[in-house]
Design brief:
The structure is a homodimer. Chain A is mainly α. Chain A has a single domain, classed as Tetracycline Repressor, domain 2 (Orthogonal Bundle). The first copy, chain A, has 10 helices and no strands. In chain A, helix 2 crosses helix 7, helix 5 crosses helix 6 and helix 6 packs across helix 7. At the A-B interface, helix 9 and helix 10 of A face helix 9 and helix 10 of B. The first copy, chain A, binds a DNA duplex through helix 4.
DNA sequence: TCCCTATGTGACCGCGTGGTCACATTAGTG
DNA sequence: CACTAATGTGACCACGCGGTCACATAGGGA
């Protein structure tokens, strides 16, 4: 985490540093991101950076933390609906809002994508922690779906989690494709979720 | 592609070079892989390497090409079953055999994983080409499923492709986890495929 | 004004990288 | 044996990296 010196800085300068770090970590995964590039673009002496952060990883952790806090806040309205809508509607809301987050804060979004693919050992531990949080959140959702009868009790809960997590990650990767307009992407998300909801086997109803 | 000199080499030396390149590209993504490390471990002079390949990327492309050729050959028996089994059985066979490939040739497998996550522009083009091939193969499978009536005609074909591809990629990432034994992983693959086959909405049958 | 502490700075360090090149070695041919 | 062409070699190059440190600057209290 940043040294106290960093928080003594005027807000404007803090934002400047954060912004350029965000730019770099959005463009490159941790290992390939260049601290020299960050300080040069932010017009900060490299020595100064080491007054604020212990090292490159310290800066990276700080950026990732801020990014995920922003995303959590952004997704809060979805969780507030938890009691009001069913499992499938909630999943749809969740993916739609994640998509809006990626649209609205593409740099933040790209940092999460790079973070998720990281190979660094210490970073991977952090990833596992975040994954645990997601599993818990999702399990809660699924449990509600099962209790209310909207989700079939036959479903293997681990497998369901696996599928939804896989699809969520793939959808997120697709968020990057800016050639797709908002409406059609929302429709696409719903098509994908329909496949999961209904399955592929024909129904006789 | 390799220079002619490379193919003039005795097979043993070619294999030596390939093996150590494989090791490196299995451990690191292209950008982080070290050519110096490859030549030093293979006990080859660095200058020699540049007699065989134009540059680092040339070597990488060759390794990736060889890896995918091996994988294609390995999966051929699955495609040979195309006319004999239905869509869901074929999907199961496909994932099972991919899993066996990862088990049997972990280095080859890891190279494909790293390849798929690469950020290099030229490499990404190659990825898109391979993705196209997969889409075609899968569309064929799905078309057969639709024609034979085993897959519901309501399904949005693009969305189905998306879901299966996402799940395939996630399963592949999971192949790395060697703590899971073979039988339980095969069972897990089938649980996941069952979720896709049946969906999550309860059935009244 | 002086002093002390906190902060800013950029030249510099050691290192590993991908790539080169002048030269040594080998193999094939007459 | 001698000549030629192909192949092997590793010291070397320029570069960019993360990180350091001796020193410059600024600001508040006595």
């Amino acid at each position: 985490m940043p040294k106290p010196t960093f928080f003594n800085l005027p807000e404007e300068k803090r934002n400047l540093i954060f912004h350029h770090a965000l730019l770099e970590f959005a463009q490159f995964p941790y290992e390939q991101a260049s601290l020299s590039a960050i300080v040069s673009r932010a017009a900060i002496a490299k020595g100064s950076m080491y007054q604020y952060f212990a090292d490159k990883k310290d800066l990276y952790k700080y950026v990732v933390q801020e990014v995920y806090q922003k995303k959590r806040e952004f997704l809060q309205p979805v969780w507030d609906q938890k009691e009001k809508v069913n499992f499938f509607e909630l999943a749809s809301l969740y993916y739609q809002r994640s998509w809006h987050f990626a649209r609205q804060y593409p740099l933040y979004h790209q940092v999460t994508v790079n973070f998720w693919d990281s190979r660094d050992a210490a970073v991977r531990e952090e990833i596992l922690r975040k994954k645990e949080i997601r599993i818990t959140e999702f399990s809660d959702m699924l449990e509600l779906g099962l209790l209310s009868g909207v989700v079939t009790p036959e479903a293997d809960k681990d497998a369901v989690w696996f599928v939804y997590h896989a699809v969520a990650k793939a959808l997120i990767d697709n968020f990057l494709d800016t050639s797709v307009n908002a409406e059609s992407h929302e429709a696409y998300i719903n098509s994908v979720l329909t496949v999961l909801e209904r399955g592929l086997r024909p129904r006789k109803e």
